[in-house]
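[Q] Does anyone have a clean structure-token version of this?
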Amino acid sequence: MVTLNYKLLPTLLNGPLFINQTFVIQIKGAGFNYRIVYKRLYLHLKNIKTMIPSKLAQNLRGSEIIKIAGEINELKRQGQNIANLTIGDFDSNIYPIPADLKAGIIDAYNANQTNYPPADGVLSLRESVSDFITKEYKLDYKPNQILISGGSRPLIYATYLALVDPGDKVVFPAPSWNNNHYCDLLTAKPVIVQTLPENNFMPTAAELRPHVKGATLLALCSPLNPTGTMFTKKDLEEICDLVIEENASRTPAEKPLYILYDQIYSQLTFGVHKHYDPVTLRPELKDYVVFVDGSSKCFAATGVRVGWGFGPADIINNMKAIVGHMGAWSPKAEQVAMAAYLKDAASVTSFLNGFKARIQASLQALYNGFMELKAEGFAVDAIEPMGAIYLTVKIDYSGKTTPDGTLIKNSADVNFYLIKEAGCALVPFSAFGTDESENWFRASVGASTLEEIEAMIPRIKTALAKL
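[A] Here you go.
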């Protein structure tokens, strides 16, 4: 058998073809062994085709986080113990979902709540969400202004599809999560605004102002994935005023500038840090803001797949059709259980208090560890924990040489060095749109215990001391 490199063949072949490539054929039998070398091979081929994916599929960028995960899995396969601070998820053995929610899901399945849900979500859940956001945020959205989907990700994509046409400008900060990929899917024009560590990597009105003219969508997130930092009241007010000013300058024939406001981590805020939203600060923006929220992060329920979005009824109605065509509904049993759980305010409060305390303790331990390393003279830094499950850390070792003589060129090299030498995996901000020369990283604490986090600091110290 001869194996050919398909790249040597044209897309469609018919008839004779000469291939100028060396082929070796080994023929063995009783009493003989022939090795035949061909320098030029004559083939007669008929209807040989290679797979050609769509231009969209060809141009989609892969995930840096998946690449890192592959490296981690290979080292784990070799027996190495890796503290995985990469994934924006929870180890469900460390952080299980609320017991009452789990029991409710089981009960719903036992009650055969297994058929299709309504396209916009089970009414009882939309009513519970309406009550929940009124209680938690003092926001007034009726059930017809609320859409349920299988997690928050379909809601973000549906917002893009409902508001953005090919070629439209979408403005978003870097670092941020996945906005570049949604722009790719829609062939929208991404306008990426680089942010600064002195502003906790949150965008400011001054940074956004040069870019909002003619834009259709401004995508914001607070607390922010990947940084775990948050808008101050003043900074968000100034951005809101910028959007109001921009919309006032547009004619009725022009699209307005909308805000996509991802607040999936809004229940996970720590200390003095408070969550703010555009509609509370500027009620006149209510017709121009689509909120994305859900249960995934605040209840450690990433696999339960219950997200909710809310906003202007006409936009939500269009998003409902889009989510329906994608089939991105949340499972009905989970919706029924979530509806009942959200109504139990005492259970929700009890869970959140305990859950937040544990997340905060892990973030604080990691922050304290990096501050101790900084005090000892290591080229590291961190931003205090504010919200979400992430800590922003700086490990500024580009240009250094490893003990085996390898030059560390950028943040990706820093990360893979720490994976191998310290058994600690982070995500460089370059995976979220910043330049690889910026040695800032996301550290996610959801998949590690407090003890594991405390134990990794000495390993990081030992690894960095070798550089």
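[Q] Thanks! Anything notable?
[A] The chain has three domains: 6-52, 57-84+351-465, 99-344.
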